[in-house]
């Protein structure tokens, strides 16, 4: 599909609905998928840090998460169709997981926030299976990697903030043929 390049990053030019359809197919086919939902802060950080830019350029999808990216696309006369945020995409994936009884692994946020997030997700989406959850303040990444590898989730939601979440995904995404998505502060919202 088509992309629009802003600050040297190829943003997908699609709607939330079309994007979710593509993700649904990729999950059904067990295709390994790395999603970066890039707001202007991430895009500028990537512009200033070539190593990080290369790391996220290896993602399957870079979505425009923020009105600033949409505005920039209009200025260069290649308007992006829609804003696609990490939070909205996570909620859509949770709905999808609930419909298809998918397995999800949650990584990130403070322990109390994560615990509330797990409870709220399980209440609202009773048919999805949370196969593991770990807070975002850890020293032993190997233990988490092993847990994800053993659990073989369909979706891995990583809420460590950028650049940590994208770096974690780049290092670990081969452990499971899942949709791996960095979701920033989404657990802080879902815990409320
Ligand atoms: N976080 C984490 N581990 C860290 C640093 C941050 O789990 O080492 C969590 C933090 O608790 C919060 C989220 O990552 O839930 C960061 O949210 P923010 O809105 O700052 O994300 P950003 O916009 O920076 O991607």
From TrEMBL:
Q: Which reaction does it catalyse?
A: UDP-N-acetyl-alpha-D-mannosamine + N-acetyl-alpha-D-glucosaminyl-di-trans,octa-cis-undecaprenyl diphosphate = N-acetyl-beta-D-mannosaminyl-(1->4)-N-acetyl-alpha-D-glucosaminyl di-trans,octa-cis-undecaprenyl diphosphate + UDP + H(+)
Record key words, sorted: Cell wall biogenesis/degradation, Glycosyltransferase, Teichoic acid biosynthesis, Transferase
A GO molecular function annotation here is: N-acetylglucosaminyldiphosphoundecaprenol N-acetyl-beta-D-mannosaminyltransferase activity
Q: Does Mitochondrion count among this protein's keywords?
A: no
Which pathway or pathways does this protein act in? Cell wall biogenesis; teichoic acid biosynthesis
**Its EC number(s):** 2.4.1.187
Q: Which GO terms describe its biological process?
A: cell wall organization; teichoic acid biosynthetic process
Q: Looking at its record, which EC class is this enzyme?
A: transferase
Stated role: Catalyzes the conversion of GlcNAc-PP-undecaprenol into ManNAc-GlcNAc-PP-undecaprenol, the first committed lipid intermediate in the de novo synthesis of teichoic acid.
Stated family: Belongs to the glycosyltransferase 26 family. TagA/TarA subfamily.
**In its UniProt entry, what is this protein called?**
N-acetylglucosaminyldiphosphoundecaprenol N-acetyl-beta-D-mannosaminyltransferase
């Amino acid at each position: 599909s088509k992309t629009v390049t802003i600050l040297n990053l190829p943003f997908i030019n699609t709607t939330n609905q079309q994007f979710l359809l593509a993700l649904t197919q990729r999950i059904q086919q067990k295709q390994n998928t790395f999603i970066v939902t890039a707001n202007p802060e991430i895009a500028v950080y990537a512009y200033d840090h070539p190593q990080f830019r290369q790391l996220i350029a290896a993602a399957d999808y870079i979505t425009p998460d923020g009105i600033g990216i949409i505005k920039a696309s209009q200025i260069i006369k290649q308007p992006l169709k829609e804003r696609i945020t990490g939070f909205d995409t996570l909620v859509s994936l949770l709905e999808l997981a609930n419909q298809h009884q998918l397995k999800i692994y949650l990584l990130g946020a403070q322990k109390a926030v994560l615990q509330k997030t797990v409870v709220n997700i399980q209440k609202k989406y009773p048919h999805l299976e949370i196969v593991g959850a770990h807070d975002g303040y850890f020293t032993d990444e190997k233990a988490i990697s092993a847990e994800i590898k053993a659990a073989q989730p369909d979706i891995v939601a990583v809420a460590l903030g950028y650049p940590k979440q994208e770096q974690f995904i780049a290092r670990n995404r081969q452990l499971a043929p899942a949709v791996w998505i960095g979701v920033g502060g989404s657990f802080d919202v879902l815990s409320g």
